[in-house]
Write a structure and sequence with these properties.
alpha/beta; 13 helices; 12 strands; single chain; Rossmann fold; globular; 7-stranded parallel beta sheet; 3-stranded mixed beta sheet; about 45% helix
């Protein structure tokens, strides 16, 4: 049996969708059953468990042999995902796949609490005795969802990245494609640490694609870190998340998301990574 922990998030739902297209019927571990029905559909096999409750997780994961975990960023990420690892081990799982952060973000001395949390979970996985796979996607195209209102109303994108800064973006559906295929057939993948991205690009090109697809000029504006901090705080985001977003911008400026790594998608998913144009066309209604 295959289980996906965090199945209603952008990446989790992509994994579930891909698994179901491949003929699998994964168990979806969720907190909110109503949200699960809305996002995953009424036919999805969902089990409710809070990832902070290890005993509930053990019950939910009973019988699962392969487990993928991907949860939202929060200061309790390490504690929550280690609960998943321990519960999976206790219930006899054989393989755990973690969707983590990039190597420029994750580490014991990372400047973001999220990167430090990912590192703690990875260490727990490596020491768990389970077979494991780490997935490290690049900077998600879906992050532009947060720019949707600004694109609709003001025809602009405002972010703390240089317009021509090389960035190899990735669509969460590519993560779904890799995760699902490894869950379905893990032979040869145990102990692998996969970094993967789409083809190299930048935010200026992203704005040009938006302009072409939605039929109006979308201007990209580089914000300073101070301007970005004020804007994030103005949206009421907690301090830890503001600090994380600013850290990502600084890491990107140092080239942390610039390296292009398309080979895992080509080799495992058997296709090229999704392009920015495909992303914008598929989500066009959100930005118009």
């Amino acid at each position: 049996m295959i289980a996906v922990v965090g199945a209603t998030g952008n990446t989790g739902r992509a994994v579930v969708r891909e698994l179901r297209q491949l003929g699998e019927d994964p168990v979806c571990i969720v907190r909110d059953p109503d949200k699960a029905r809305e996002i995953l559909g009424p036919d999805a096999r969902s089990v409710v468990a809070d990832i902070s409750d290890r005993q509930a997780l053990q019950t939910a994961l009973s019988g699962a042999r392969r487990v993928l975990v991907v949860t939202g960023h929060n200061p309790q990420l390490a504690e929550q995902q280690i609960n998943v690892v321990e519960a999976a081990k206790a219930t006899g799982a054989e393989l755990i796949i973690k969707v983590s952060g990039g190597t420029a973000v994750v580490g014991p001395e990372s400047e973001t609490i999220v990167g430090r949390g990912h590192h703690q979970v990875e260490e727990a996985i490596r020491n768990s005795g389970l077979d494991w796979v780490i997935l490290r996607p690049g900077l998600f195209m879906q992050n532009t969802f947060m720019q949707a209102a600004l694109i609709r109303t003001d025809s602009k994108m405002v972010l703390p990245f240089a317009a021509d800064l090389p960035i190899a973006f990735i669509d969460v559906r590519d993560t779904g494609a890799l995760g699902a295929r490894i869950l379905r057939n893990p032979d040869g993948h145990a102990g692998q640490d996969y970094s993967f991205t789409g083809t190299g690009s930048n935010f200026a090109e992203f704005a040009a694609v938006f302009s072409d697809v939605i039929g109006k000029t979308v201007t990209y504006i580089e914000a300073s870190l101070d301007e970005a901090e004020q804007a994030l705080k103005g949206r009421g985001l907690p301090d830890w998340l503001v600090a994380h977003q600013l850290a990502i911008a600084r890491i990107a400026a140092r080239g942390g998301f610039s390296a292009e790594e398309t080979r895992p998608i080509l080799d495992i998913a058997g296709r090229a990574p999704l392009t920015m144009r495909q992303f914008v066309e598929d989500h066009k209604a959100m930005f118009m």
